[in-house]
Amino acid sequence: MARKKRDQPLIPLKIMGTGAYLPERVLTNHDLAKFLDTSDEWIRTRTGIRARHLLSPEDVPSQMGVKAAEAALAQANRSPKDVDLLLVATNVPEEPIPGTAAHIARELGLGKGAFADVTAGCAGFVYALAMAGAMIHAGLAKTALVVGTEALSRFVNWQDRSTCVLFGDGAGAVLTEKSRGQAGILGVALRGDATKLELLRIEAGGVRLPASCETVQAGKHFLRMEGKGLFRAAVGMMAEVTRAAAAQAGLNLAEIDWLIPHQANLRIIEALVKRLRIPEEKVVVNIDRVANTSTASIPIALDELVRAGKVEEGQILALTAFGAGACYGTVILRW
Ligand code: UT7
Known about the structure:
CATH superfamily: Thiolase/Chalcone synthase
CATH architecture: 3-Layer(aba) Sandwich
CATH class: Alpha Beta
Number of helices: 11
Distance between the termini: 25 Å
Bound molecules: oxa(dethia)-CoA
Number of domains: 1
């Protein structure tokens, strides 16, 4: 089908800098097999994961976010004082009040810039990037820092082999400003299906079920996931929004130079890519080394791609994610 190509971006936006941070401590599948009824073979073949980085007990997610943000600011040659909007995508805030963004703003020395957390499951970074772009486009912000930082290792049950093997900790960031050229967001599709809310939850610790001895004893502070249901939903959701964003951009999927999918499971990525008929060499995969870092997964993968010198001006990047909620979304960018 012939589509009208968008010459001017929907949202003129330039990614001025990217950054990422992975904690030093690495836990391999072999390490896991020492205390869990699992094996490197099972984890590798079912998920594509070989290792994950874990935040040390004395560290907090905002420290990872700050390190990723500092790298993005340095690459962009900007100072924290230039940032007038900080959006932090994260699933579990550093403490109930205030959110992680406040801690990152204080540590970075943000000045009087606005800051807020964005909670949209593992799709949080894609949501936050679209929000930052829309605010810049509306003239409500000039320099927006978008961070994804996550330490789900603190919420998995290390006795539950069906969840704890999947997640890793880390952070990624991008610094964005209005673009004067062709760079920008060409298409956005953000969606949700709250009928799937049950698929991924941490039930206790919020207002609905405050922390108590009973909630701790019942294990209700652990992340609980219906893996098969999520797997099935994920491929369809990411395919749907990637097609919708491409249609809005007036692009054929074949014109995408780089697909950066949320790194939840290599089999999910492979099924998505097959469905969208995107060649393997255009798909960014680092799940083997970092596992599922939730909101940080896309900005970490993007940063690795950029720092490897693989992204060229004018190239088309599609960032797509799904997660708790169920929230899902795709942002298509011209670099
Ligand atoms: O960011 C979004 C959040 N998460 C996701 O997107 C996860 C989506 N789902 C998945 O990635 C996959 O469903 C999993 C990797 C979680 C599970 O893979 P699966 O192929 O759906 O396996 P399964 O749950 O059907 O389990 C198959 C078997 C079971 O044993 P039985 O019942 O067949 O005897 C499990 O008990 O594998 C067993 N199993 C394990 N065995 C060794 C489950 N976890 C493990 C493990 N090691 N770590």
